[in-house]
């Protein structure tokens, strides 16, 4: 840590601009210390801050700054962080963290030089200043910034804004009834900017596919879920996933969605929606009869073969198929399933039912459903891949009500 001890009181700079080093009093010494670019009352050590927050039941406020080049960052720092009333007003509820990305790296501690670029990437910071509210486990609770709640209102207003953020997000879900039993609930409370896209694109598509999947994935005695929650979440620390499903809840990482709205966002959500419909693991599951290559392959089969067949059959071509196996999971298995269904219509429905009823055994299923073993089907699949096997279509699964 670059620490310069100063003796001249003239350097006390409440209301410091980021051009000047922060001056804090060295504990008990009566001396003034020039420290890093970290404002007084903040730390640049996120790990320690999280541990402290967890222990003391606080939240963590993380400001991502560019202290020597970003005008808004300097203003936030000067008008808010450096004002004497700010830290006392928030410190009983928040541990304050300052993650700086200055042009002049010499104002950073050695740890910050190494860690800050990683944190910027991990939390998807693309504008400055950015501010996140994390819980003690590093989960993002809220995302805020500089204008939100501040708008030139100074330290008192900004402290009030942070007190507002402490309350649980107002849950104002977008709810959609579908023609089948399922009710869809969309929670965009941590990502209000995604609300419009959710209402205009995501919700109508999910409603449409809930109806389709109710047909495609019907099996005896099975009822479609009554309600599914789609919830945007902040990405947990060290978790590199983009979306996941658990029971009837689908969690969507807000930053990844923001970047992929016109790309893989919808397809990814179709994959997760399929997992909700599979519901293979209720009543206990075992890898013997609920292997994950089948559930993942089936979810990608819905996505790649039925939802976006224009995506070119999961990217499986003659060039790469030789080294692949039918149980390669995800897109590989999805492509194999598409082939089998096109040759033996109805097989996927049987497969889904067997997985749900826990009667799927790889060694017997294929022979019973198609008359061929998995190995024989795999050989047919490989020799067929350059040929134009008819791809099953959603309409093939239409159930008469
Ligand atoms: Zn999956």
How would you explain this protein's 3D organization?
- With 401 residues, the protein is an alpha/beta fold.
- It has three domains: 11-165, 3-Layer(aba) Sandwich (Glutaredoxin); 183-269, no CATH class; 292-396, no CATH class.
- The protein is 40% helix and 14% strand.
- It has helices spanning 46-56, 71-81, 86-90, 110-122, 154-166, 195-216, 254-260, 265-278, 292-307, 318-321, 330-343, 347-356, 362-370, 374-384; strands at residues 4-6, 23-25, 32-34, 59-65, 94-100, 130-134, 140-144, 174-177, 183-187, 227-233, 243-246, 249-253.
- Strands 8-9-10-12-11 form a five-stranded mixed beta sheet. A four-stranded mixed beta sheet has the order 5-4-6-7, with helices on both faces. The protein has a three-stranded antiparallel beta sheet with strand order 1-3-2, with no helix packed on it.
- The longest helix is centred in the middle third of the chain and has 22 residues, at 195-216.
- The chain is elongated and about 80 Å long.
- 39% of the residues are buried.
- The model is unreliable at 1-21 (pLDDT under 50).
- Residues 271, 275, 296, 299 line the site of zinc ion.
């Amino acid at each position: 840590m670059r620490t310069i001890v100063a003796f001249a009181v003239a350097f006390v700079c409440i209301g410091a601009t980021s051009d000047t080093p922060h001056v804090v009093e060295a504990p008990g010494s009566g001396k003034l210390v020039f420290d890093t670019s970290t404002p007084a009352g903040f730390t640049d050590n996120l790990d320690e801050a999280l541990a402290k927050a967890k222990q003391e039941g606080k939240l963590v406020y993380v400001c991502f700054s560019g202290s020597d080049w970003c005008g808004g960052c300097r203003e936030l720092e000067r008008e808010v962080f450096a004002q004497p009333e700010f830290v006392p007003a928030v410190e009983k509820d928040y541990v304050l963290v300052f993650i700086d990305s200055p042009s002049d790296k010499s104002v950073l501690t050695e740890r910050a030089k190494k860690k800050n670029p990683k944190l910027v990437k991990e939390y998807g910071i693309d504008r400055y200043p950015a501010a996140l509210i994390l819980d003690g486990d590093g989960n993002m609770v809220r995302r805020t910034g500089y204008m939100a709640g501040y708008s030139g209102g100074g330290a008192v207003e900004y402290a009030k804004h942070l007190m507002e953020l402490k309350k649980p997000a107002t849950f104002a879900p977008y709810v959609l009834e579908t023609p089948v039993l399922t009710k869809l609930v969309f929670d965009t409370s941590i990502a209000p900017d995604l609300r419009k896209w959710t209402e205009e694109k995501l919700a109508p598509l999910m409603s449409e596919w809930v109806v389709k999947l109710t047909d495609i994935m019907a099996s005896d005695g099975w009822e479609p879920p009554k309600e599914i929650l789609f919830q945007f979440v902040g990405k947990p620390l060290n978790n590199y996933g983009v979306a996941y499903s658990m029971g009837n809840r689908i969690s969507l990482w807000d930053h990844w969605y923001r970047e992929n709205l016109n790309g893989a966002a919808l397809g990814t959500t179709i994959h997760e929606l399929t997992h909700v419909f599979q519901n293979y693991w209720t009543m206990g599951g075992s890898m013997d009869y609920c292997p994950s290559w089948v559930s993942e392959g089936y979810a990608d089969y819905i996505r790649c073969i039925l939802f976006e067949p224009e995506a070119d059959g999961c990217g499986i071509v003659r060039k790469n198929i030789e080294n692949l196996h039918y149980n390669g999971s995800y897109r590989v298995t999805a492509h194999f399933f598409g082939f089998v269904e096109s040759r033996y219509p109805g097989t996927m429905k049987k497969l889904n039912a067997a997985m749900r009823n826990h009667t799927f055994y790889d060694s017997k299923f294929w022979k019973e459903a198609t008359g061929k073993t998995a190995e024989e089907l795999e050989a047919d699949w490989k020799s067929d891949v350059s040929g134009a096997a008819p791809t099953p279509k959603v309409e093939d699964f239409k159930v008469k009500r």
